[in-house]
Amino acid sequence: MNSSEDRSSIFLGGDIFERRELLRVCHVLDIDRIVGRDEEISAVVHALGPGTRGSPPETTIIYGKTGTGKSLVTRCVSRQAQREAESHDTDFRFAYVDCSDYQSDAKASREMARQLSDAPDTQTNIPRVGIGAANYRDITWELLDTHDIDVFVAVLDEVDKLDDDELFRSLTRSKESGKSDAHIGAICVSNKIEYRDRLNERLDSSLQDNELVFDPYDADQIRAILENRTDAFVNGALEQGVIPKVSALTAQEHGDAREAVDTLYEAGRIAEKEEASTITEEHVANAVQQAEINRFKQLVSGTTPHVKHILRTLAILTADNPGQQSFSTSEIYEAYTKLIATEGATPLSEDCVYRLLKEQSFLGVTESEHTGGGHGEGRVANRVCSERSRVNGGRHRAPTRDSDAEGTPRTGARAPHVPAHILSTDRLAGRCTDDVSWNTVHRRKSR
């Protein structure tokens, strides 16, 4: 640039986006923009509806893979319930806690209290440190009673990330234990269908069979979701084939609306950087890989250290054995225990490793397919994939675990695609995997 006149236009940007916030995950849409989730919306409305008239809301657990609309529906309906309650002279409040960001009981309890205290009529200073989880919850109960709040709902997103269930238990028992006069409910959102199995019997009984499963979107639903957000772009910016291409690719891979929206956004960003006047199918093709990286960063970054160790183990096995296409769980487990030993940590049991691999399959980090064999047999294929969109149609099926008196089969997973500079022992053995594109396919094999 040769003059201040040249520099005056550096932030003008291209003619692509009109309302880019419509394509960002953090943006909560109006409820009438939600597509393909009418039954699920009705179910959450049924759970929260009593609270809008001053009665107890129903505690509910919601399951589903990433990108199936769980968080969006829950937040939108909660916000709508708060508005509806006003018309019935009911003071209805809710707090949304992302447990992947607040994984300890104390941190999640503090965030719940902080959100309640941030309202103009309830402003209270919440200590950042120095008190325990129960004390943070006591602040919540006191705020509810001091300000005569009728109904309070805590939305615990990714509740399975919490290190224990004490917060959930306290919410479900707060009324009968005399903690607060308000009607208190909880909506727990989990990517893990097995989450309820870990709840103790007393807590499990309080749920009254209120469970809801969000299935993956199909191609038509994803296309409708994208078409419902075309006003994120200026008129004429989208070429005709862009949305059909994004929806077809995403539905085939995961049925993940979040990835579809992210792909469309990335395509727009690429076009914007190129100063193109329209978004083309070529821009979509270039955006697919970045959207996949974003998706796996999100999935993997929120996992436990042991899951990261297991996935790093798969990457190491594939890098060290370029000619080998499959690994049994016993091979994976042996390599995993060696990796853990280098850090002086205690390894999980092989059964636990199996279950964690199964969870990653459910989440779509790995793909599971029983390819043959009789009772107690199967096969696992594991390899590094340069592009996930080329891998086996992308179907993600959770493994079935047959067992007999002689033993049980185990599950392995294809190692993620890892850039060469990350495939060093140092990076894989001891570093966070946030910058790793986990392009993984998972099949079973006999031990």
UniProtKB/TrEMBL annotation:
<dbReference type="InterPro" id="IPR055237">
    <property type="entry name" value="Cdc6_lid"/>
</dbReference>
<dbReference type="Pfam" id="PF22703">
    <property type="entry name" value="Cdc6_lid"/>
</dbReference>
<dbReference type="InterPro" id="IPR036390">
    <property type="entry name" value="WH_DNA-bd_sf"/>
</dbReference>
<feature type="region of interest" description="Disordered">
    <location>
        <begin position="367"/>
        <end position="420"/>
    </location>
</feature>
<comment type="function">
    <text>Involved in regulation of DNA replication.</text>
</comment>
<protein>
    <recommendedName>
        <fullName>ORC1-type DNA replication protein</fullName>
    </recommendedName>
</protein>
<feature type="domain" description="AAA+ ATPase">
    <location>
        <begin position="56"/>
        <end position="218"/>
    </location>
</feature>
<dbReference type="InterPro" id="IPR027417">
    <property type="entry name" value="P-loop_NTPase"/>
</dbReference>
<feature type="binding site">
    <location>
        <begin position="68"/>
        <end position="72"/>
    </location>
    <ligand>
        <name>ATP</name>
    </ligand>
</feature>
<dbReference type="InterPro" id="IPR036388">
    <property type="entry name" value="WH-like_DNA-bd_sf"/>
</dbReference>
<dbReference type="GO" id="GO:0006260">
    <property type="term" value="P:DNA replication"/>
</dbReference>
<dbReference type="GO" id="GO:0005524">
    <property type="term" value="F:ATP binding"/>
</dbReference>
<keyword id="KW-0547">Nucleotide-binding</keyword>
<dbReference type="InterPro" id="IPR041664">
    <property type="entry name" value="AAA_16"/>
</dbReference>
<dbReference type="InterPro" id="IPR015163">
    <property type="entry name" value="Cdc6_C"/>
</dbReference>
<dbReference type="InterPro" id="IPR003593">
    <property type="entry name" value="AAA+_ATPase"/>
</dbReference>
<comment type="similarity">
    <text>Belongs to the CDC6/cdc18 family.</text>
</comment>
<keyword id="KW-0067">ATP-binding</keyword>
<dbReference type="Pfam" id="PF13191">
    <property type="entry name" value="AAA_16"/>
</dbReference>
<keyword id="KW-0235">DNA replication</keyword>
<feature type="binding site">
    <location>
        <position position="229"/>
    </location>
    <ligand>
        <name>ATP</name>
    </ligand>
</feature>
<feature type="compositionally biased region" description="Basic and acidic residues">
    <location>
        <begin position="367"/>
        <end position="390"/>
    </location>
</feature>
<dbReference type="Pfam" id="PF09079">
    <property type="entry name" value="WHD_Cdc6"/>
</dbReference>
<feature type="binding site">
    <location>
        <position position="217"/>
    </location>
    <ligand>
        <name>ATP</name>
    </ligand>
</feature>
<dbReference type="InterPro" id="IPR050311">
    <property type="entry name" value="ORC1/CDC6"/>
</dbReference>
<dbReference type="InterPro" id="IPR014277">
    <property type="entry name" value="Orc1/Cdc6_arc"/>
</dbReference>
